[in-house]
Structures
1.
Amino acid sequence: MQLFRYGFLLRNLILRDFKIRYRNMSLGIFWSLLNPLVMMGVLTFIFTRIFPSPSIKNFGVFVLCGLVPFNFFAVAWVSGTTSLLNNAALVKRVRMPREAVPVSVVLANGIHFLIQIALLLTFVLGTGYGINPNWLWLPFIFGLEVVFVCGLSLASSALDVFFRDVRYVVESANTVLFWLVPIFYSFAIIPEQYKTVYQFNPVAAVVMACRLILLENRQPPFSLLWKLALVSTVALVLGLAIFRRSKRKFADYL
Amino acid sequence: MPPVIEFRQVSKLYYRHHTRRFFHRYLMEKWGRAPKEPFYALRDVSFEVEEGDSLAVVGPNGAGKSTLLSLIAGLSFPDEGQVEVRGKVAGLLELGSGFHPDLTGRENLVVYASLLGLSRSELRERFDEIVEFSGIGDFLDEPLRTYSAGMILRLAFSVAIHVEAGVMLFDEILAVGDQSFQASCFEKIVELRRKGCTIVCVSHSADVLKRLCARAIWLEGGRVVRDGPVAEVVEAYRLSAGAHAPIAGKGGG
């Protein structure tokens, strides 16, 4: 019963977020598609004309496999982080399960993620790759990424209430991650001694798994899957713990 | 039967940090270098409210009235003493928190109702009643930014009283409603009281409080100055406020 209530609240908050964002825009959901398309175009131009990387074929789809999971991660994490401050009136004055605030914001971004995944799959098929049974891994992998971002956002949104600098830390971290996640280069060219670092980065893992599944028709290695599941679950548990510990003081600091 | 609301020597502290940055402050306090400058929003407050009772809270701006309500609502927690509240709490602490101007009245209603804890089936059952009581009529599907303050109040109030909580809190919100809506609010609140609902009201209008509540607490500087029958306490407060109009440090009432 309690869970249904919670589900109804989450659903309404997600819809609210989604409606607010698009209500007064004439292009609406098209913006969800435009951003990755533009980035794909620019990166493809640079890495096929200016710094050609001949080892990668179909660079456009290749880079989109990186951009879609990364975009979701970056945008959802920043908006999750600022969600409590942006909804200060709500948190301060209405008694409600406060975890629902950052989680609903991340899940609302999940809707855009779905739209962009559809775009990615369209490109994959359009470039001549077929549908293969390994596609069944995709919901699991993308689902884990959502869980991971929920965990991170629970922690960072709680901290952001007390230290307003957190938002800028998160933004900087995202800028750095754009380079440290194999978006426009492949995992194969990373020197051996750095590979372990990449393996524990869930965003890098999602990108790698995505490419293996969509472009190489291979099942992602088991080691990658359990590490991704482990890191995401730990992030969620820690995020919830940090959030629960600090939420009693939210109203005093907002 | 234990009291529904119980405050035992409750104090709520705020630190005056002026414009000092949170992080800086945190470090300074952690290592004990910064002299803390505590400011008591509430100090050693004790009272009990029995089920079905109705309590008015009066006092000048900054006396701690809103702090008291947010402690009852479970939105913030005391630094000293204990607050115990039995049963579900709902109410209006601020007009329009949780409402968004770009969403329609209907959409805001649904979001707000679920924020206050209504389930899908409860909302379906009570939806027509909520709309009916609010008197919003044709404006239900217009964006909230086209609403007047009074209409937002009608919508928010109507949702809040249909939550069926055991304890209802009202913080100086009826002021923007027009005569007829105020009249129906009073009627509704009286009806809630008859059903055994406990009510806590903050208002600067003595007439409102006298009509809605039986008992009153007078707060000043975070302390209870007087606790007793509403007419007596409100009258005493009015006399003292007329003599001098004290304004305490912190805004917001």
2.
Amino acid sequence: MSKVLIVAEHLNGQLNPSTAKCVSCAAALSPEAIDVLVLADAPDAIAADAAKISGVARVLTIARAENAQPLAAALAPQIAKAADGYSHVFGPSTTFGKDLMPRVAALLGVGQVSDIMAVDGAHSFKRPIYAGNAIVDVDAPTDQTVVATVRTASWPTAASDGSASVEALSVDVALPSHTRFVELQAASSDRPDLQTAAKVVSGGRALGSAEAFDIIYKLADRMKAGVGASRAAVDAGYVPNDMQVGQTGKIIAPELYMAIGISGAIQHLTGIKDAGTIVAINKDAEAPIFEVADIGLVGDLFQIVPELTDAL
Amino acid sequence: MKILVGYKRVVDYNVRIQVKPDGSGVVTDGVKLSPNPFDEIALEEALRLREKGLAEEVIVATIGPADCQAHLRNGLAMGANRAIHVVTEAGQDVQPLAAARALLKLIDKEQPGMVILGKQAIDDDANQTGQMLAAIWDRPQATFASKLDVADGRAKVTREVDAGLEVIDVELPAVVTTDLRLNEPRFIKLPDIMKAKSKPMESIPFADLGVEAGWSLTNKSYAPPAKRSRGVMVKDVAELVSALKEKGLV
């Protein structure tokens, strides 16, 4: 039987919803137990949140000053120790998990399954390659630990009616001092987080300037939506890079995705494949975005977007 | 210091990938092959560090079949001092852990002060090799770099993370993996292609490195992704609003 250890992601004392998505993926293995590991300087509040995730048996905490920041070089050796006795170790396929989990895998002497999008068995998975243009069925060796990242856009958030026990864990491992955290330059915003928002409004190069992006923010605020952008809009400097949606930015799965002035390059479409409903607004009726949009509207976004904002 | 750059050959990013009808793989015969875009950024960054006087030598390395020599010549033409070709056998699948172990053998030999790799290759999209190499080398990793400053035996690296930009400071030697916005790689000029022909290229058979194969993933079958179908077109904002209301989305 499988036993799964999930590495919790958190920031500023808040548990990231990606953790509950990893639990959904782990549950698909029908395992004997799912435990969540919280590494932090002060893990109690985060652990209490993780304990509420339905399906979690135990929440294990490792409280160390070195765990105040998510530095892979410090976290990985602790996780590798804590992994003892588990058949699977999962983390989210966010920048946190992508940075950390391969380091854990290599310390355990195993490879990693990246971006699990479906589970076919305890050691059989589906994962995307070539920017999502092909899906490959893979088998991991059955006699070794499976370290994997979970493609969060492919999995629902597990319910929050659980009541797991919380246990402090101490692992005896020396941590390196060669890596120092300096700072996090976070784009502070009252808007819903792009990665987890139920609704997302994105703007593309057709906006033409950073100032013009204002109409996107206004519409998003009216809809209580997160705000994203195409790579072209980011590269043109209209918005910061953490707003980029696509294969090389964020891969998201909101219930509603509004693509405004975005032509729909493959790399952008890869990032929104799992969205519930895609709405496209573009002046070019031939734009590839309309091939995947559930609702399309051809026209001038500078007229349509303010009109839509007023109508909602 | 020396900088070792990983430089993988992949299907060109402009090629529309086709899955073979029997699901045994994707079509790679006769399609354009190019350097992995993230690796070109890695090489560009190494060259800029050398041009600033922060590195003396840039070594470009690849793990691939015998015909990867022309690919490595591209790296030399871009400006690397020399190349190392770890030669695999036809059809040999080198997965990230094995690639990291092979690169560690090159590190043992070359003792670089920094290793720069792309954050992922655009074929298998694994995003693992740099992190694994840093782990088994027992050195720092600075992944998804969008800015790199080297001074006094340390590197200050700005990383593109979901929450914004994270800055970390690592002791060298270290592994850095590149994100898109680190730089724009230079174009190769004709005289540089001529010059590259006389630059040294060392070939080492993969089997001679003594890398244990160990763990490997079995790729069983390939399929194209589920397609989204084209939906409805609305003619104005009023129709759009009622369509959204119908779906309960506003």
